[in-house]
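We now fix the convention by which a protein and its fold are recorded. These numbers are not coordinates but entries in a learned vocabulary of local backbone shapes. A record is reproduced here so that you can trace the correspondence yourselves:
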Amino acid sequence: MKQTISYYLFIFSFLLVSGAMAQTTSLDEAFKSAYKNGVKAYKAGDYKGAVDQFQEALKYRSSHENSWYYAGMAFVNDGNPERAIYCLKRLENINPDYNPWVYSYIGNAYLDLDDLRKAEDYYQKFYDNLPKDPKGVATLHLARNRIEYAKRSPEIRASKNSDDQPLPLANVNSSLHDYTPQVNPTGTRLYFTSVRQGGFDYIKDSARLTNYGEDVYYSSYENDVWQKPVLMPEPINSMSDDFGSSFTGDGQTMVYVRCGTDESIGGCDLYIAYLESGQWSEPKNMGNVVNSGAWDSQPTISSDGTRIIFSSTRDGGYGESDLYVTSLNQYGEWGIPSNLGSTVNTPLSDKSPYLASDGKSLYYATEGHPGYGESDIFYSLFDNGKWGIPINVGAPINSSGDDTNFSISASGMGYFASSRLDAANYDIFEMELPDHLKPKPSVVVQGIVSNANTSAPIGAVVLVEDMVTGELIALNKSNDETGEYLIVLPAGRSYSVSATKDGYFFYSQSFDLPDDASYAEITKDILLEPIEKGTKVVLNNIFFESGRAELKPISYVELNKAVQLLKDNGTMVIEVGGYTDNVGSDELNLKLSQARADAVVAYMVLAGVEQERLRSKGYGESSPIEDNATEEGRKANRRTEFVIVEF
């Protein structure tokens, strides 16, 4: 009897154990299936589906570290920082040594919630838990950057630079992304990028329902209103993505970005095109000296066309994307780009540079410096050979959204792109900038270069030089078809602006722009005299000491042009004529004018022009070209003229 009872007890116990084992196996399989499906959904970008699966897995193993991690990261990628914090902090409680990056993700989530104090705490934990070895220095830099961001941003966010609010450009913006605005110096044309339908659309690609491909547009400012955008034609736009246009001050050189072509060096490359006879040339890839195998994008070209600053993800930078600069070398070729350095660049993303017309004020967007939101607009000033500490332009330009692609007209009207109205969409905004955010004032000099005899437009080389040092500041070209030119001169220098063309006598004009000069637009049409016997021109930039025949050094820039002209035209013989105003006696004025003409000839002989090709004659106060009753008139009458006597 006892043996029978023992037998049944054994059978019952076996069944209980077998049932428990079967149940355990079933639960284990359910956990594994849910976790596996969660990882699969996460990697496929289905973050909501991944969260459902990880929640199911955690029913079976509530302390499973990887499930809490992936659930937290799914919430991060799905834009739910509160739930991300909950999951990742549960992981922290289970295993505080799981991975130092968990603390960074929690800090980022608190940053998204504008809880900067808690963000700073978790960034500090991130830093404290990182290995302090040579291979981790870059990550330590990132951690310190995030700590500083969270610590310093409250003070920045508490201030604002203007009570005015940026206004969206209603006639320019569409229901889809509009960004990368660049305004011309006079504020009359705005170029930008849009993914709206109606351009060179990817109409067969169903994935493009909210992105029809990037194209370049422009809008003109007429009757105090920005007009309906116009699509830039081929060859600028194409069936590839074309965006991020930037222009020289005269609007005749364009640098922009094209992606995904057969000739691409990287994912996106910089291209350059020129306006010739009213038409844009075929855009040319700038090649593997400038472009890399990575993403090269968002260029800005200096007003004088000698430098390009752009953003790149190439190896060797400080962060996700850095700013680089390439310059024209002595052969007229673009050189190897150099990194702008750690003062400007950060361990995060630095992008959308804009170099103002003064050539020294750099505006750009960055995620790495303390600020208001995803990315903020900053400016840095170039002084003594280096870029200064970037300064946040403040609210209301910057917001809690993504603020980027800044541009400014010479008069101080700012344009930028922002996601402040819709986190999933960029619009273009404009705002009058407060004075302290404007670059040094500039003067826009524009006009038409034409033949003095026929009035036909001329495509001439327009040079801008420093009157004091002789330094070449800029080299531009008037339009071949219209003769139009435009140059931007920052305040704080004395300039010589000259136009030259083979077969014509050069023309020059001086502009003295002190540091306190205000913005102005000057129209100066230039008439070039054909080189032929009898041609007479006034050399506007030859100056003498008062009442004497001693040349001022600022005359050398002009005189050197005259010397070169004679060297280029070996049969030319000229007469240098000296003239004075009517102050003083006729006899003294005649003597002074002759001495000044002789001084000019002497300089040119020393510079290598044969004496027999030069004649000098003083005309005194005879033949005035203006009324001597005013100081301006007397100044015009004190002049040096060249006359071609043989050719």
Q: What stands out?
A: The longest strand covers residues 442-451. Residues 2-43 form the longest helix (42 residues). Residues 274 and 552 are 39 Å apart (CA to CA).
